[in-house]
Amino acid sequence: MVQQVTSGIKISVETNFEGTFYKNYKVNFAFGYKVTIENQSKEIVQLNSRYWKILDALNNEEIVKGEGVIGEKPIISPGESHIYSSGCLLTSPFGSMHGYYNMVNLSNSKKIKVYIPSFKLSAPFSLN
């Protein structure tokens, strides 16, 4: 698990390998990840959007950005957490992801960029 705190918001990420399958005559490697967003600040915050940079071992890069996470824009009170799971496909058995969430402090409308730490995605059979 990797963790990082930005402006009192703690991001923790756990990953797992889901398997391989063929798509468009190419092998794909599926990975899942679980993100815990914990509000350790004294303010109520809302997650509005996300930005991900996904890299694989073949130097392919994918940028994913959009509103909320898995169709939600969670409001997180002090001491509370929001947990969600998602996934991605790579064309190699290992890679990495990192990014950030755009959040807003609901008491003063201040925008906050909360960083998601870089984490590795690796199929168990690809490791020595």
What's the shape? elongated
* Distance N to C terminus: 20 Å
* Low-confidence spans: none
Instruction: Tell me what portion of residues adopts beta-strand conformation.
Output: over 45%
Order of helices and strands: EEEEEEEEE
Structural class: mainly beta
- What is the annotated CATH architecture? Sandwich
The CATH topology assignment is: Immunoglobulin-like
Largest sheet: 5 strands, antiparallel
Number of individual domains: 1
Question: How many β strands by DSSP?
Answer: 9
Helix content: under 10%
Mean pLDDT over all positions: 95
Total helical segments: 0
> What's the CATH H-level superfamily name?
ApaG domain
The first-level CATH class is given as Mainly Beta
Radius of gyration in whole Å, from Cα? 16 Å
Features:
mainly beta, Immunoglobulin-like, 5-stranded antiparallel sheet, 4-stranded antiparallel sheet, 9 strands, 70% strand, elongated
